[in-house]
Amino acid sequence: MTKAIRIEKNGGPEVMEYVDVDVPPPGPGEVSVRQAACGLNYIDVYFRSGLYKQPLPGGIGMEGAGVVDAVGSGVTHVRPGDRVAYAGHPPGAYAQWRTVPADILVKLPKSIDFDVAAGMMLQGMTVQYLFRRTFRLQGGETILFHAAAGGVGLIACQWARALGVTMIGTVSSDEKAELAKQHGCKHVINYRKENFVERVKEITNGEGVPVVYDSVGKDTFTDSLDCLSPLGMMVSYGSASGPVPPFSLNELASRGSLFITRPSLFSYTAKRNDLEMMAAELFGMVEGGKIDIEVNQRYALQDAAQAHRDLEARKTTGSTILIP
Length: 324
Description:
The chain is of the alpha/beta class. The chain has two domains: 2-120 and 293-323, Quinone Oxidoreductase, Chain A, domain 1 (Alpha-Beta Complex), CATH 3.90.180; 123-265, 3-Layer(aba) Sandwich (Rossmann fold). It contains eleven helices and 16 strands. The chain has helices at 42-49, 114-118, 121-134, 151-163, 174-182, 196-203, 221-226, 250-254, 265-268, 272-287, 304-312; strands spanning 2-7, 16-21, 30-40, 58-59, 63-71, 83-87, 97-101, 105-107, 142-145, 166-171, 187-190, 209-214, 228-236, 259-261, 295-300, 319-323. Strands 3, 5, 6, 7, 8, 15 and 16 form a seven-stranded mixed sheet that branches. A six-stranded parallel sheet has the order 11-10-9-12-13-14, with helices on both faces. Strand 9, helix 4 and strand 10 form a beta-alpha-beta unit. The longest helix has 16 residues, at 272-287. The chain is globular. Keywords: NADP, Oxidoreductase. It comes from Oxalicibacterium solurbis. GO terms for molecular function: mRNA 3'-UTR AU-rich region binding; NADPH binding; quinone reductase (NADPH) activity; zinc ion binding. Residues 11-322 form the Enoyl reductase (ER) domain. It holds the Pfam family ADH_N.
């Protein structure tokens, strides 16, 4: 028996239970992993609350790092003793030990420790696809990125700086504004004090930005559209404040023939070659010193409920991990 967080029903943080579980041996195409650290991400809140559906009872958590214990038949890219990390389906990363599909695992370089890996796989590869694939930044652009002091945001600040991109970021406090600036965000807007649409127009001399990256959802959606220049792209990749309500496509036409996309990491990593490419680029940015992954909060696995409360209250910055 080993310990894991399980949920019997959807709801608040209190529905997560720290329980004994059996870990089955790996079947064909599977690997068992002894986990050293688990990542905490806002997508976990979506699965816990029921915004994203999964069969219940079930596990929770999409990201972890550890050591391969055993492999099933047909698995050739990892073997027992390998250091590995992952961000992928199915949920269940909040665990001491688990069996996972082998195709979500990538080998972890020796230079990257488990805590850092568990705090960067989902968030770091999210920035990779946002900046390098969804709207490919070439350098020289000015962009708007919401939640600039969060886990994804701090990685984005550094990645934008490395690409020669001017990033405008929104945050909820002066302390978070300073943190974003320290990580490379050129212009930081405290949305509790300033109107971010007006500030974006001011910074861009009225032109707006070619792309907005928005993980907030309902509360920022319409204003984000108003920050775009004609033919700009709205990248809505999260719903921290709730899902975006239905809207008319004419809203895009009236603002200058805008584009909109609702991407997810798991679509971008569905092909093994893409996953390996994305992970390699992320590892290279970290090993090259261009991105520093800041694990600013650590909780014991059994304290996952408190970690969720703090995340939803916007008390966290950078990456957060659970220690099994």
